[in-house]
Amino acid sequence: MMTQRTQTSSCTLRYKQRFVTSCRPLVTLSSAAPGKTTLGFVGMGILGVPMTLNLLKAGYEVVVYNRNIQKTDPVVAAGAQVATTPRECAQRAQYIFATLSDPQAAISVANGPDGIASGISAGKGYIDISTVDAETSNIIATAIKSTGASFLEAPVSGSKAPAEQGKLIFLTAGDEELFKAVEGPLDVMGKAKYYLGGVGSGANMKLVVNMLNGSMMAALAEAMALADKSGLSQADLLEVLSLGAMANPMFALKGPAVVERSYPPAFPLKHQQKDLRLALALGDSLGQPLPVAAAANEAYKMAKAKGQANSDMAAVYEATQH
Ligand SMILES: NC(=O)C1=CN([C@@H]2O[C@H](COP(=O)(O)OP(=O)(O)OC[C@H]3O[C@@H](n4cnc5c(N)ncnc54)[C@H](OP(=O)(O)O)[C@@H]3O)[C@@H](O)[C@H]2O)C=CC1
Ligand SMILES: O=CC(=O)O
Fold first, then answer.
1. Which ligand places an atom closest to the C-alpha of 99?
2. Which residue ranges form the domains of the chain, and what is each CATH number?
3. How far apart are the first and last CA of the chain?
4. Minimum CA distance residue for ligand 2 atom 3
5. Which pairing describes strands 61-65 and 38-42: parallel, antiparallel, or unpaired?
6. Which of 30, 125, 157, 255 has its CA 20 to 30 A from that of 245?
7. In this structure, are residues 122 and 147 in contact, taking their beta carbons and an 8 Å threshold?
8. pLDDT of 305 over the 90 cut
9. Is 52 a pocket residue for ligand 1 (Cβ < 6 Å)?
10. Sign of torsion over alpha carbons 221, 227, 229, 234
11. Exposure letters 11-41 (e unless 16+ CB within 10 A, then b)
12. Which comes out higher in pLDDT, residue 25 or 18?
């Protein structure tokens, strides 16, 4: 049986006091329950498909939209219905989730012609799971809330396997009543959920986490390149790391891909580079020096230039090879 451990951070309580009045919705939201609530899901990518499959398995009705309609096939086979535009998805569902590539895609789906904002209305909610910056999230929140609907940003920590296993970690912010209304679906898709406060807090937390993720992977790639150049076995290096204080699940997962130089995408390299780019912009805006992340970003840019954009992020190793 799927494990659904749920925790709410202690900072939730701190922020609750601060945002409870500013985020009061115009219309009371009802709790999303299987068999009673139609959910929408936009973006049938690496994350969107397994997340939707888990919602269907839990008994929710789900209406999906994807720009390339063929990518809806696996969820349609499991019982999902298809909308022809994000607007239709928002009209047919009460709570609409989306997981899209980047800020441009997220704004286009939410605010563009036939976008979510043109179909959503009071009593409904939009939950954007895409990893974007706080500015993008605020642009989307403004458009959604101008319709009377509610908005929650909910980027996730976790990759393809946690999405399949319902073990993602939600980093949410925005309308707290919407967070409460969609606790059921969030618990189906994740093992933990945090409500972090006003719009932007979830986006910033995700960027901080992924800045570290990207820097760690780039550092591992360099260590593995140096080991190899020194005539050492990369597999031996991974074993040594696994036994000491630097052991971590990410090295254990991505290290073998580097040894094999085989990078089937779980977290596409282009998305990791986008996250570093957005984290660096956040650092710039706050006057926070980020020299390690800046160097890591260059490594991902080099790997992209070597044709690895759609490979897994572990392909940053290719930037070390000349
Ligand atoms: N994969 C992972 O491990 C994780 C990813 N994330 C984040 O989640 C988000 C989604 O990731 P992932 O599922 O891997 O990404 P994918 O690249 O697999 O999927 C991206 C989705 O965005 C859609 N899309 C892109 N541009 C547009 C557009 N202009 N209009 C409409 N739809 C568009 C794609 O549609 P189409 O199929 O038509 O191209 C596709 O459905 C990203 O922000 C990523 O950074 C966060 C945590 C983990
Ligand atoms: O965003 C990627 C992840 O693994 O988390």
1. 1
2. 10-199 (3.40.50.720), 205-320 (1.10.1040.10)
3. 47
4. 158
5. parallel
6. 157
7. yes
8. yes
9. no
10. negative
11. ebeebeeebeeebebeeebeebebeebbbbb
12. 25
158 lines ligand 2 (CB under 6 A): yes
State the Cα–Cα distance between residues 53 and 38, nearest whole angstrom.
Answer: 14
Question: How far is the C-alpha of 215 from the C-alpha of 275, rounded, in Å?
Answer: 11
Counting Cα atoms < 13 Å in the Cβ hemisphere of 321 gives 13
The whole-angstrom separation of Cα 66 and Cα 169 is 23
Atom of ligand 2 nearest to the CA of 162: 4
Please check whether residue 144 is in contact with residue 110, taking contact to mean a CB–CB distance below 8 angstroms: yes
Q: Residues 54, 160: contact at Cβ < 8 Å?
A: no
Segment 35-52 shows an average pLDDT of 97
C-alpha to C-alpha distance for 45 and 160, rounded to whole angstroms: 10
Helix (H, G, I), strand (E, B) or coil at 155: coil
Task: Measure the CA–CA gap between 27 and 155, rounded to whole angstroms.
Answer: 25
What are the helix (H) ranges across the chain? Answer: 10-19, 48-57, 73-77, 86-92, 103-111, 134-145, 160-165, 176-181, 183-189, 201-229, 234-243, 249-260, 269-286, 291-303
Catalytic residue among 191, 193, 206, 274: 206
C-alpha neighbours within 13 Å on the C-beta side of residue 288: 11
CA distance 319 to 302: 5
pTM for the structure as a whole: 0.93
| Interval 156-172: pLDDT, tens | 999 999 999 999 999 99
What is the C-alpha separation between 271 and 321, in angstroms, rounded? Answer: 21
271, 275, 312: residue to mutate for ligand 1 pocket, most atoms within 8 A of CB = 271
Give 28's pLDDT tier (boundaries 50, 70, 90).
confident
Count of all residues that appear for the chain in the document: 322
Query: What kind and span of H or E run contains 168?
Result: strand 168-174
Q: How confident is the model at residue 16 (pLDDT cuts 50, 70, 90)?
A: very low
Q: Which two tokens stand for residue 30?
A: 């009802």
Amino acid 76 reads V
